[in-house]
Amino acid sequence: xxxxxxxxxxxxxxxxxxxxxxxxxxxxxxxxxxxxxxxxxxxxxxxxxxxxxxxxxxxxxxxxxxxxxxxxxxxxxxxxxxxxxxxxxxxxxxxxxxxxxxxxxxxxxxxxxxxxxxxxxxxxxxxxxxxxxxxxxxxxxxxxxxxxxxxxxxxxxxxxxxxxxxxxxxxxxxxxxxxxxxxxxxxxxxxxxxxxxxxxxxxxxxxxxxxxxxxxxxxxxxxxxxxxxxxxxxxxxxxxxxxxxxxxxxxxxxxxxxxxxxxxxxxxxxxxxxx
Length: 275
Fold this sequence. Notes:
- This protein has 275 residues and is an alpha/beta fold.
- It has helices spanning 20-25, 50-53, 62-73, 91-100, 165-174, 195-199, 211-225, 231-234; strands at residues 2-3, 14-17, 32-37, 76-86, 105-112, 126-133, 145-147, 182-185, 203-208.
- It is globular and about 40 Å long.
- The relative contact order is 0.17.
């Protein structure tokens, strides 16, 4: 296990270089509040390009992913739930896998990426979010449409199939992630899906088999885990900076002042007093 630096407490995020099934089996019964993940599904052939092969050792079929989800389900709290991301090509298989994992029902949401997706070849404008629910799962908040801009394919240092931090925040809000509860991503990748939960005060555990993914997730989550610096060290926010001369008159535009009287020059009136 590789503990992240930052907060030196037991609530600090943990990132493990581990198989997903082994990671979940290491957790106690009824310990997980939310299981959230974007698994390495093989619906789209990821072995067709050298770029993706550098990131993924191998992909998994949805029946294999379903068996991992079943392990996680047995470790969920009574009001817990699972959140699984999938593209359109694998939607039907993913729903079958979530059902086979033993979840009582599925709620489906659409992620509007607002821009073409990641990677090479076909790029999906939308993807889907499956909420695997237990009989006692908590009530979800929000709608069945989540809008968050996708991470651009040319973003420096991005993970091959990186999900945006904004999506993780929306999912944490919808799932009503609570302070102190455990949120786990056994296929963590960049770790971005856990950022929202960490910001809400949850304890997070991330796992992946890719060394590059582990390094990236460690950096991302460590940055969130660090306590905020003092206000004096942060300096003034950019939106509260000193206004430019051009914008200065707008600061008190609601105030109305009397117009100044026109000054009298020495040539405006004849010296002899005649009009």
